[in-house]
Specification:
This protein has 112 residues and is an all-beta fold. Helix content is 0%, strand content 34%. It has one domain.
Length: 112
């Protein structure tokens, strides 16, 4: 069984093509430090995800392969932020993969 972990720290900020410094007054519309666990997220398979890290530095950890049947081959493991609606935006996010390095290790971001 393949175990993969993804550290997800997501900050969605309205933005455009210009760097973030150009828009210092634009509001942050979504930010999650995972202090409330996965309450702001909906996953395709809750059993494949857990909270990891220290209390002050929580991370969303995909620790096992999902058992969900999907209409397409992959991705199987998905965690979507709840109730975030934006037009133009800037996405600042940190991800960390702890899976072994091989050609099919990928991370997908979904919008829509």
């Amino acid at each position: 069984m393949m175990f993969r972990s993804v550290l997800v720290v997501a900050v969605f900020v309205f933005g455009g093509i210009l760097p973030a410094e150009e828009y210092p007054s634009w509001p942050i519309v979504f930010e999650d430090n995972f202090e409330d666990g996965m309450s702001h997220w909906t996953s395709s398979d809750p059993n494949a995800w857990r909270m990891a890290g220290e209390k002050e530095n929580q991370q969303l950890d995909q620790f096992q392969q999902s058992k969900v049947k999907t209409p397409v081959r992959s991705p199987f493991n998905r965690a979507l932020a709840n109730d975030v609606v934006v037009g133009s935006f800037q996405l600042d996010v940190d991800f960390k993969s702890t899976a072994r390095d091989y050609p099919h290790r990928s991370l997908c971001l979904f919008f829509g």
